[in-house]
Amino acid sequence: MRMSLAQRVLLTWLFTLLFLIMLVLKLDEKAPWNWFLIFIPVWIFDTILIVMLIVKMAGRCKSGFDPRNGSQNIKKKAWYLIAMLLKLAFCLALCAKLQRFTTMKLAYVFIPLWALLIGAMVELGYSIFNVRRD
């Protein structure tokens, strides 16, 4: 089942809106919820994206797939998967820090996010300055 662009945008808006409402309720101290509960919309959305990426990557393993088409595509999908896992690691570390489950320094909490941002800048630079020679 493929989702149209409109469905993806609507789903993104819905999960973002739910997260922001829950975040505001938590910050205004109207909801005494655990930080891991506040991030449930983020966890659900990320899980959907990770499953979709894994399914697309696994589609390369089916019979009849021509590997000459899209060797760059699988690298890009692998990068997206790594980026999603780095974002997930950051969110988990942030929730653990906010919930005071760990005494980890805040700088260590942000290491996955920094790695994600550096990787994104490298990917952007590669896509801008990569000259294809066909």
From TrEMBL:
Keywords: Membrane, Transmembrane, Transmembrane helix
PANTHER family for the chain: FAM11A, B PROTEIN, TRANSMEMBRANE PROTEIN 60
Taxonomic path: Eukaryota, Metazoa, Chordata, Craniata, Vertebrata
Residue ranges of the TM segments: 36-58, 78-100, 106-129
Pfam hit, one: Tmemb_185A
Protein name: TMM60 protein
Organism (species): Formicarius rufipectus
